[in-house]
Amino acid sequence: MTVKILSITLLLLSVCVCCHSSEGTRHRHPGLKPPCCVDITKGNKTAEVVGETYREQAASGSCVKAIIFNTKDRKQLCADPDAQWVKDLTAKMKKV
């Protein structure tokens, strides 16, 4: 009886450890790069931007140089870092 209880306990512990260790990789796909901006928006989209932060993206592979803002509909907006409206907006925000 004691051996059965010990075996079940070890099995449950093993399952918990396996689930916990794979938790960080749940949304990652081996060999795939994270999404990036491959194109930048045309025109002034200031009205669509929300929040107080932005991110910079360097050009690399198919990813273009861009400033990334959050939008009202919870998407990312890839903007031209050289556009005046982008410079004006980033001057008022924090880079993350």
Automatic annotation (TrEMBL):
Residues 33-93 form the Chemokine interleukin-8-like domain. The keyword Isomerase does not apply. It comes from the Eukaryota. It is found in: Secreted. GO terms for biological process: antimicrobial humoral immune response mediated by antimicrobial peptide; chemokine-mediated signaling pathway; eosinophil chemotaxis; inflammatory response; positive regulation of cell migration. Residues 1-24 form the signal peptide. GO terms for cellular component: extracellular space. InterPro entries: Chemokine_b/g/d (IPR039809), Chemokine_IL8-like_dom (IPR001811), Interleukin_8-like_sf (IPR036048). GO terms for molecular function: CCR chemokine receptor binding; chemokine activity. Its main location: secreted. It holds the Pfam family IL8. Keywords: Chemotaxis, Cytokine, Inflammatory response, Secreted, Signal. SMART domains: SCY. This is Chemokine interleukin-8-like domain-containing protein. It comes from Astatotilapia calliptera (Eastern happy). The lineage of its organism: Eukaryota, Metazoa, Chordata, Craniata, Vertebrata.
